[in-house]
Design brief:
By secondary structure, the chain is mainly α. It has two domains: about 150 residues, no CATH class; about 150 residues. It is about 75% helix and about 0% strand.
């Protein structure tokens, strides 16, 4: 029996490691997608999908074709990795385990991620296209990407957590009912999740604007933002820094609250990490504006945004799961502990 339990534990650890590696790889694919957008290489394979320039492997390709083809190839590998995650989860965990649900959700979001990417190419929403329809599709793409990262992160978390797999301990003595998180806590973390998605969407619009409407100075960039003659996309760009400051401060309050509410060791680490990432992201955002959004800064800014999102999702799950699992016990026979 002990050997069987040991093998099961090792198998679970391997699954959690695999899920974590799939998450990390998907973040790298997302960052390369930012390179595709920032360099205007989205049209590098023409209007063909999934083929590139009408062939499986393009020959005598230009740099834009190489960049776009590399992104499609890496995305294809990501699909294979996520597809492999699902049977792994169903083989490793029992029916009803959270890892199964999150792995299946990750596969669904991976498929919709590919469909949205295909839509961008097939409908010409790439390259120098500055239409509002491109803004809409890119925004949907960003939301789907974040949901994919959340599903992968929660897959790894559920595999490494003992709470979902272990039976609830029973007591013959009278115990109070489980203490679930209050509605206020759910609303607070729900608002944090929605606010972070909104920051991501407005950040996508700002990044696209930086790519399509290059400014030569900070003064010119600000003038373009407030000019009535500018493309509507540029006038939307100013929303991102304002929303980032407001929502970022709210997230810092959430993290500070988590630290002050006697969290588990994991929640404490996640809350501390979230605070550090938010401070770093504020700094990168300011530098991004001052430096007029160079490619390397856009990639670094996006990487930090992805890490903020993943950390927030994991912190939310950890805090709410911990509160839900809390069972304060009241023993009837110990009157001295209950009385005065």
């Amino acid at each position: 029996m002990k050997e069987s339990d040991s093998n099961r534990s090792r198998g679970t650890s391997r699954f959690a490691l695999y899920a974590g590696l799939v998450l990390a790889y998907n973040i790298l694919v997302i960052l390369w997608g930012a390179v595709v957008r920032a360099t205007g290489s989205g049209a590098g394979c023409g209007d063909h999908w999934p083929l590139c320039q009408g062939v499986v492997i393009p020959h005598a390709a230009g740099i834009s074709t190489v960049i776009e083809f590399a992104h499609r190839s890496s995305s294809g590998i990501a699909v294979v990795l996520v597809v492999g995650l699902v049977p792994f989860a169903f083989r490793r965990f029992d029916k009803g385990h959270a890892a199964r649900r999150y792995a299946a959700a990750a596969l669904a979001f991976t498929l919709t991620e590919g469909l949205l990417g295909a839509a961008l190419v097939l409908f010409g929403q790439v390259g120098s296209n500055a239409s509002m329809s491109r803004v809409v599709v890119l925004s949907l793409h960003l939301v789907n990407t974040f949901l994919l990262l959340a599903a992968l992160a929660l897959t790894a978390k559920s595999a490494s957590s003992d709470a979902a797999a272990q039976p609830v301990q029973t007591f013959e003595k009278t115990a109070m009912p489980s203490q679930a998180p209050g509605n206020g806590l759910y609303l607070a973390y729900g608002a944090g999740i929605i606010a972070t998605l909104a920051i991501g969407v407005t950040g996508t619009i700002a990044a696209l604007s930086d790519t399509l409407f290059r400014a030569t100075s900070l003064a010119q960039s600000l003038q373009m933002d407030f000019s009535n003659a500018s493309n509507p996309m540029l006038r939307l760009r100013i929303i991102h820094p304002a929303l980032a400051v407001i929502a970022g401060c709210f997230l810092m309050v959430l993290a500070a609250h988590a630290l002050m509410s006697r969290p588990s060791a994991r929640a404490k680490r996640l809350a501390s990490c979230l605070l550090v990432l938010l401070i770093l992201q504020f700094s990168l955002g300011v530098l991004n504006v001052i430096l007029l959004a160079p490619l390397w800064m856009q990639v670094l800014h996006l990487l930090t945004a992805d890490l903020v999102w993943v950390t927030l999702v994991l912190l939310s799950a950890e805090v709410l799961d911990t509160r839900r699992a809390t069972r304060p016990l009241v023993f009837q026979e110990d009157a001295s502990l209950i009385g005065a």
